[in-house]
Amino acid sequence: MNYDAAIREFIRRYSAAGGGQIEDPEAAVREVFAAYDQARVFAEELQETFLAEREHASQLQQALETLQASHAAVESSEHRFRALVSSASDAVVVVGRDDCVSYASGSIARVWGQLEEAVRGDRLVQHVHPDDVVKVTLALTSAREMKGEPLTVDFRVVADDHSTRYIEAALTDLGDEPAIAGVVLNARDVTERMLLEEELRSAAYRDPLTGLPNRALFSGHLEQSVGGERLDGPTVALLVVDLDRFKVFNDTLGHEAGDDMLIEVSRRLRELAPHGSFIGRLGGDEFAVLVRSADPDVPEQVAREVTETFGIASPEVSSVSVGVAVLRDGCETPQDLFRAADLALFHAKHNGRGQYAVFDPERDGSWRERLDLEAQLRGRLDGTSSVCDSSRLCR
């Protein structure tokens, strides 16, 4: 439709609709077309806006789907991490700046014998063996000072069943990491290893029959005790106890009866020795007691009680003999004490057994020279070294 036809058509429809006379029909039509053009332009702009919003909505949907996928991946990763940590042989524990447990992996139940929920929020030392609280507290302090360098410490924990477990833990301070903000403990249960080591130490330094310290442990303890002891301090004495005629008893009644006898001797020595004494089995039928007392008469009283009250119900073995040596001038080293006690024991047995004797340098000096001479002569006759322990000849 051309422009003139459009004007006529507009006038016709306007008149048919009951409209009045239009003064300037052409201007009115131009206004209508202008309004139409504006409406068309607005519609086009609206359509463009709609298309843009739809594109934006599509992008938002894609972003949401990506975010959901990422969230699912994170959840899956966290689940996998928790599963790995829970099934790991080591327990992971995070201790905050307040020394409280902020995180504990599920494997702590297997390693520490304590539930994760029971540990979280408590101070770490609440679950540590009382004797190791100071050690763990110092280890935490040291780990924080080392700033990320690992520190290894052994300690004990008390499990929920009240049993004690040995723990080996590597402590690493990650306090500067916001997600952690604490000391990380990678802990493992080493109870079996520690008990095995304890058994090996016991086998090396304990008499398996009586449970007493053996000669090596007793000699080491004597060395430590005598090394820094002052001669004007408490009385320190070594008692060497020997069963009389034990070989006859052992050969007559058998080794099992002999073992029972040695066990009984060790039990009675524990009962008779003063508190703080150190008792050991030196070997065979020979025992030793290290006594320390402010009363100088105590060692001799102990020796008297051992010989007088050591009633052994056997016709073959009816007594014990005891040699006593006191730490003093001229008898100041562990070797001096052993030799002096052995010489005193020799004197006790020489006088009829079932007695005790205290080492007397004047009295036993000649015996020592004689025994040293006999030892040298025997060594030369046997082709062995001319220097040997003469005190062993008193048997």
Tell me what the structure shows.
The chain contains twelve helices and ten strands. With 395 residues, the protein is an alpha+beta fold. It folds into three domains: 3-55; 88-196, PAS domain (Beta-Lactamase), CATH 3.30.450.20; 206-394, Reverse transcriptase/Diguanylate cyclase domain (Alpha-Beta Plaits). A five-stranded antiparallel beta sheet has the order 2-1-5-4-3, sandwiched between helices. Residues 385-395 have low confidence and may be disordered.
The order of strands across the largest sheet is: 2-1-5-4-3
N to C succession of SSEs: HHEEHHHEEEHHEHHEEHEHEH
Radius of gyration based on Cα positions: 48 Å
Low-confidence residue ranges: 385-395
What is the percent of helical residues? Answer: 40-55%
How far the N terminus sits from the C terminus, by CA atoms, comes to 147 Å
Instruction: Find the CATH superfamily of the largest domain.
Output: Reverse transcriptase/Diguanylate cyclase domain
Mean pLDDT: 79
The SS-based structural class is alpha+beta
Question: Under CATH, the topology of the largest domain is which?
Answer: Alpha-Beta Plaits
- Tell me the count of domains: 3
Strand count: 10
